[in-house]
Design goal:
single chain; about 270 residues; alpha/beta; ten-stranded mixed sheet; globular; binds adenosine-5'-diphosphate; binds magnesium ion
Amino acid sequence: MKDKTCLSLWQVAMTYNLRAPDGTVTDLEAIREVTHELRMGEFVTIIGPSGCGKSTLLEVIAGLRKASGGEVYIWDQRITGPHPSIGMVFQEESTFPWRTVMENVEFGLEVRGVPKKERQKTCQRIIEIVGLHGFENSHPNALSGGMKQRVAIARALATDPEIMLMDEPFGALDQQTRLFIGQELLRIWEETGKTILFVTHDINEAVYLSDRVLVMSHRPSVVKAVVEVDIPRPRDTSTITLERFHELTSALWETLRVESEKALGITKTEVHI
Ligand SMILES: Nc1ncnc2c1ncn2[C@@H]1O[C@H](COP(=O)(O)OP(=O)(O)O)[C@@H](O)[C@H]1O
Ligand SMILES: [Mg+2]
């Protein structure tokens, strides 16, 4: 199945029109051009400096924001709004604090009008896949950060989307929790066969998780490099000790650091590390 294209981005571009209080409008060109294809079951990561348009791109693919140029297709259907084949896990913590774990996971199916018994059966299975069995009746405030992100992942999985978009989902977690939840995500991905488009600013996470990493330039952004990650699977937390892992993370950093310097307004002569 892996040879079948399920998501196509064709010359996607985004310019925001910023309106000042006096009514004047200035353009902010966030994304100049992104063209790429994802095949079914792939795990692809986008990495790039802060403000280069990663979240914007995911919002465009999710149909939550209209691009100013280009086209996005799922199979051969052009995306013009939210699509049932796409699930999204956001950057910020996005569980509903007033709902239990089960009620959080049920949300998408509830909106679609699936009867309670049926949706609870589906959600129970998903809760088990993400390792939250026993916490069905807990509220998010009784869970750790890592567990809350599992709830968010389970909620996105519940409607059985083909493609999962994940925008820095582990950004708020400490490094060790992040590694272990990454390992869990790989297990969930292998078990469910989803296609994942993942955004991170963490080079280690990008290499550890992905089949392929797209490096975006500073804005107006383009895809500056595409790095194939040829580390065999299954991977786990020990993957980060492999020599090949270090070669790939070093190569990525070489590409990324120039863009990060531009994003931070640092010139070469100012770097004294
Ligand atoms: N709703 C918006 N209106 C105007 N500008 C925006 C909006 N959202 C993002 N931007 C700008 O677009 C650029 C890209 O933002 P974003 O997609 O959030 O970047 P990233 O996720 O890579 O950090 C930034 O300069 C940001 O300030
Ligand atoms: Mg972002």
